[in-house]
Specification:
The protein has 351 residues and is of the alpha/beta class. The chain is built from 13 helices and six strands. The chain has three domains: 75 residues, no CATH class; 77 residues; 144 residues, Rossmann fold (3-Layer(aba) Sandwich).
Length: 351
Amino acid sequence: MKNILTTQQLRKKYDPDSILKGIESHHKKNLDKLLSILSQPDSPLIKYSSNHQISFLESDQKKDDFIEEASSLLKDALYFMMLSKKDRTLVTQRMRAYYSDVVKNQLTRVELILDDQEIGSPKHSTDPNVNHKGMGQVKIILNLVRKSLTQEHEYRKRLRRKDHSHFIGERIKWSAKKRGFEVYGVELIHSVQKELISKNIKVYDKLESVSKPVNVITFWHSLEHINDISQTLILSRKYLYDKGILIVALPNHDSFDSKYYKTFWAAYDVPRHRVHYNKKGILQTVEKYGFKHLSTKPMILDSIYVSILSEKYKGTRMYYLFGFFIGVLSNLLAMFSKEYSSNIFIFEKTN
């Protein structure tokens, strides 16, 4: 029998309850303030009219009930945005590890039972009715549980492969040391180059200096900062192996938060952002240079971060709370429109 930790032991190891209690405590402590802000005359919720909204938001709820429900949706966001960037990363990693281990251990236990074909019906038994009553139904149920746990386990394994960290060089460093990849960065700013080098990351000052082909090239909210995108994409294709992968993350000016904030939308970020794309535009641009689009993934947290900055640019009092709401609302609407605030686009080099 494998030494598998129970869920209780995993709770003791990761202590998720302290985080969940912290979220509830923080929300309760700030609830009156949050409700007061969401109820102000210029709050988007006050201006809400079901006659002008898509059907999933339509409701017979009173305005106060709707505001209270909206405030409850901000629990996690309110808690995480009060943490430092480092603490947010640590909390996220801890909760993710806990839930992943719970699913993995439960799946292992179910498989151990199902792998023993004689459970409930041992062949050496003298009982004439070796198939114990109800064992068939138990196995059917356990197979359904195994199927569900397997899907969840595979999802969480893929989730751990994604690194959405914004620490300079940490994503590269983590991939190199933990995954065994040979990686390096391209950086124009001298001070950032020095920081990358201090983390033992090889860095070039321009793409043309790359000495050999690579399997993957990523532009993590950086392609929109480049003056000559055409030449950059040509060189990217040149330095990728056949079937190599190009990953581009960038904001989407067709998102709800972009249209809501208009000229105050923080992701425009001019003049540092040289160009802005919607989903159709980036696909047409990249595919023109010899790439095939494989998939698109939303960046859920970007809408909240960008909305908070946008509210700050507007000079809104308690800008982070209004930003929370607009960011969450943008994500809810994007579940139907597919126009998220930012997206990750994955391309493959064509022959």
